[in-house]
Write a structure and sequence with these properties.
622 residues, alpha+beta, Calcium-transporting ATPase, cytoplasmic transduction domain A, 21 helices, 22 strands, 18% strand
Length: 622
């Protein structure tokens, strides 16, 4: 139980005890008049002191038009017309409702935390030939940790000894364990499955994946959606309208009908109680919390409720190609030398020139080269995004890149005749040949494209690759809009153009790998980073992060968004509808003050239950 809930429980307990004593004494001893008022006033004060104090603080901030004001006016008015017991009972039920609200919110947050709390509790630090158990926060870069079967990986690290499998479901939602060998990266929050591993710490605890993900989900709870802002604005205008209706109920009927004025005052006060919007105010944030938690369970990190609302308005999905629609794992398919260069010499020149690059194309060249690179042979490296690389290898000037690089350097080259990514190589200003590299379309990308087409949503593909490769991938996936041979700045310009041409109410999402696409991710209405595990740029720039390299998880994200918004709409319609009904019944004298507050609690509980199911939202939808 939270600190607030404990305080509220003590307040309710004290007030209830004083209320029972006051009721018993006044009934059994037939106490009336001032003594009766004082006894019930003590119970009322115990129950309402924090409500009055909170309202006083809100007055200074000009934020006092809320449900607390309605209850204060209603219960104070009930005391004024001699309805002491009902005034205390109404405040008692109101505070009980507030306690339920506090417990529901805290339990929802705890449920989310339990679903995704991937933070490790300890680490086995290797000290010489012994091990020492230490808090993960104390680990330093470069230290060696020992990972035993069943233990959580405490920080991001690289395997230095041993082989085994790692369960990454808590991070990515992927149920299949991943095999790891020496040199493979390990992410904190994963679980070592079946063998003892030793690993070198590569990130401090606060910079590790688990800590970042937990911070991200916790901060998402604080980013309010338009629906929550609507509820706040609704209450701001709703409260004075309800007070006006209650005031007119007190003034007008006695002028028109022959009935006791006190009866209409009482009905006006009941209207204030009946109109209390507690059920609406608590259920909306609960639904969004549930949606964010459910998505996190499935390896989808959503930065706030506003993203859930925006996602269902997306009309156009723009995809980067490499690493998003394709696996981004390139393999050398063909080596075509020119001008007396052998295949081995051509591959060696390209691999050495690219040896410092982390680009997938460079890694494929090094893989094909298959030998350890002597980096002392390489100097003056200049990696040029959108073109390629320039380096001096064994004293010879080497250019390796695309046709744009060759054109810029005024080197005539023979274009590759097959589909694939071609790396053109020039040595000392002369064309030396090209190396053809191929990528593979992701298996589940087709599933996503079919889903988009079925819903008449547009798909656009952007790539820096050549037009032939782009058209080949787009043809396989059924994407009609393709833009190829783009520089990074070209992608930004195109996205700005797309946004300008959108109709009102339509939004655009960009889906990229989160590493090289940060500017475009930030520019889109919604930036979706795929395979964001450990990618700092993705965690910073994107609004939604798919922790596994599966574009089809966008389908689950949209389903969760729709289910969340459906729950919110149901709660709003039900809560507002019941308020209107209760106000009408209060006007005609069909409900008492206790009935009104009990009905409000029932509305709140039904809405809370409707919001809770979002935490259990299944992966394939309902």
């Amino acid at each position: 139980m939270t600190k607030e809930a404990k305080k509220k429980s003590i307040e309710i307990g004290a007030g209830l005890l004083l209320y029972i004593i006051a009721w018993a004494v006044t009934d059994l001893k037939d106490v009336t008049g001032a003594p009766e008022t004082v006894m019930f006033l003590l119970a009322y004060a115990a129950l309402s002191v924090t409500t009055y104090w909170e309202q006083l603080k809100k007055i200074t901030k000009k934020q006092f038009l809320d449900e607390n004001l309605l209850m204060i006016i209603a219960t104070a008015g009930a005391f004024a017309v001699g309805r002491h017991k009902e005034a205390v009972a109404a405040m008692l039920f109101y505070q009980a409702g507030k306690l339920v609200e506090e417990i529901s919110l805290s339990r929802t947050k705890k449920s989310i935390a339990s679903f995704i709390d991937i933070r490790p509790e300890y680490a086995n630090l290797k000290v010489g030939e012994t091990e020492k158990i230490v808090p993960p926060q104390e680990l330093l870069l470069g230290q060696i940790i020992v990972l035993k079967p069943g233990e959580k990986i405490p920080v991001d690290a690289v395997v230095t000894s041993g082989t085994g499998t790692v369960d990454m479901k808590a991070l990515t939602g992927e149920s299949e364990p991943m095999a790891v060998w020496e040199g493979d990266r390990l992410y904190s929050g994963s679980i070592n499955m079946n063998s003892v591993l030793e690993a070198r710490v590569t990130k401090r605890y606060n910079d590790s994946t688990a800590a970042k993900i937990m911070r991200l989900v916790e901060s998402a709870n604080e980013k309010h959606s338009d629906s929550i802002h609507f509820a706040d604005k609704f209450t701001k205008y709703y409260t004075p309208i309800v007070i006006l209706i209650a005031l007119l109920t007190v003034i007008l009927p006695p002028m028109m009908f022959i009935e006791a004025k006190s009866e209409w005052i009482y009905r006006g006060l009941i209207i204030l109680v009946a109109a209390c919007p507690c059920g609406l105010m608590v259920s909306i944030p609960l639904a969004f919390l549930g949606g964010i938690g459910s998505a996190a369970k499935q390896g989808i990190l959503i930065k706030g409720g506003s993203m859930l609302e925006k996602l269902i308005q997306v009309d156009t999905f723009v995809f980067d190609k490499t690493g998003t629609l394709t696996e981004g794992v390139f393999h050398v398919r063909d080596i075509v030398p020119f001008n007396k260069m052998t295949k081995e010499e051509l591959l060696e020149a390209a691999a050495l020139a690219e040896s410092y690059s982390k680009h997938p194309v460079a890694l494929s060249l090094l893989e094909a080269y298959g030998r350890e690179v002597d980096k002392t042979r390489v100097t003056d490296i200049d990696e040029q995004p959108g073109y390629g690389v320039h380096a001096v290898v064994d004293g010879r000037e080497v250019y390796a890149g695309n046709t744009r690089l060759m054109d810029r350097e005024k080197i005539r080259c023979q274009a590759a005749g097959e589909a694939g990514t071609a790396v053109y190589v020039a040595v000392d200003g002369e064309y030396a040949g090209y190396i053809l590299i191929s990528d593979v379309v992701r298996k589940d990308a087709m599933k996503l494209m079919r889903w988009l087409r079925k819903r008449d949503l547009s798909a656009v593909m952007l790539t820096g690759d050549n037009e032939q490769v782009a058209e080949d991938v787009a043809g396989n996936l059924g994407i009609e809009s393709v833009y190829a041979e783009l520089m990074p700045e070209d992608k930004v310009e195109l996205l700005e153009e797309f946004r300008e041409n959108q109709m009102e109410g339509e939004l655009l999402a960009f889906v990229g790998d989160g590493i090289n696409d940060a500017p475009v991710l930030a520019l889109a209405d919604i930036g979706i980073a795929m395979g964001g595990l450990g990618a700092d740029a993705a965690l910073e720039a994107a609004d939604i992060i798919l922790m596994e390299d599966e574009p089809s998880r966008i389908i689950n994200a949209v389903r969760i968004s729709k289910a969340t918004l459906r729950s919110v709409r149901e709660n709003m319609v039900f809560a507002i509808g019941m308020k209107v009904l209760l106000i009408a019944m209060a006007f005609f004298g069909f409900v008492t003050m206790q009935n009104a507050i009990i009905a409000d609690m029932a509305v709140m509980l039904i809405n809370i239950l409707n919001s809770f199911w979002m935490l259990q939202y299944p992966e394939k939808g309902v």
